[in-house]
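Side project, low priority. Logging it here so it doesn't get lost.
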Amino acid sequence: MIYTTGTIAGNGSTITGTGTNFTAAGSLIRVGCSLIAFTTPVQVLQITAITSGNALSVTPAVSPAIAAGTKYAILLSDSLSVDGLAQDIAETFGMYQKYMSGFADVMNGTGDVTIMINGAQVTVPGQKSLAKKGENSDITSLSGLTTPLSMKQGGVGASDPAGARAKLELGDVATRNINKLLVSDSSPSVPVMLQTNSDFRNIVSYDALSEYPLGLSAGLATGKQLPGSGVAESGFVGLINVRTWGNNSAGQCSFQIAVNDNVAGFRRTYQANGTWFYSNFLSWYHSGNTTRASDGTLKAASPVVKIFANGNAETNEESEGVTVTRQAPGVYLVEG
C-alpha cells in the first residue's frame, strides 16, 4: 500500500510536495515511513517529521537535489512487520484522539471552536453558544439572555419597561394612570378622555373644582357635598363630574350632574379670587316635581296629597313623606 498523490521536490533534509496532503486523515503517513524518489539514481529516504500537508523532513539528506515535479511513493504497508503494525495502531489511535478531543471542545465550548477534519481546519460554534449564530449573533446564551430579543425575533428590543414602551411607540398612554381620584396634568390638553370610577365621599373640599379628577368621572357622593339639593347629608347621590380642562383658563366649562331617587340637577362653576368652585345645587324641572296647567305650561308642583275613600293616599315629590290616617268616614289625619 503506497501513497503517490502529487509530485515532490527536495533539497537537504526537506521534501516539498505539490498537490499533496501528507496530513490527510486516515492516510497512515507517519514518522518512520519510507519515501522513494524516482530520480536517477532512485533515492530511498525515511520520514523524520511531517511538517504540513506539503512538507516533510527526511533522512538521510537528499543527494542529489530532487527536481520539482518528481514522482515519488511513500510505503504505507510497513504494518506487515511488528514494528510497523505498532506504529500504525499508534497513528490510528492518535487520529481518533484528535477527533474525540475536537468533539469534546465542540460540546463544552462557550465560543467558536476550531477543529481538524480530514486535515483541514474547521471553525464551528461551541454547543453552549449555539444561540450566538446568524441574526442572533449578539445573543450569548439560550437562558439568562443578556441581549434583549428584537421585535422581529418576538421580543420588545429592550431590557426595561421604559425601553419597551419606547420600542412599542406607546408614548404617554402607557404611563398615564387614569384610575385615580386625583390626576395631575401638566400639559395644556389631555389627548385621551380620562374616565374614572370614583368615591367622591372622600373629597372634603367638595366645592373646589381642583379637588375632582380630570376628564369624565362618575361615582358616589352624599347630600352634604351637594348643598341646596335637599338631600340629607348622609344620603347617597349618583354624581357625574366633568372637568374639561387641566388649568384655570376654562373652569366655566366644567360641571356636575347629580341624580338619586328624589332629586335631579346639576352644579355649575363660578370663579372667586382666581379659583374655580362649584355652585350650590340647581334642580331640574321634570314630571316628578312639576304640574301642567290647563294652558299647557309647566309649573313647580305644590305639595299634593290624593286621598281615596278606602284610606289610601298618593303623594307627589313635594309631599313625599306625608302620611294619611282614616279616622272616620270623611275624616282623615294628614301628617308630615
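Brief comment: Residues 237 and 261 are 8 Å apart (CA to CA).
Revisit when time allows.
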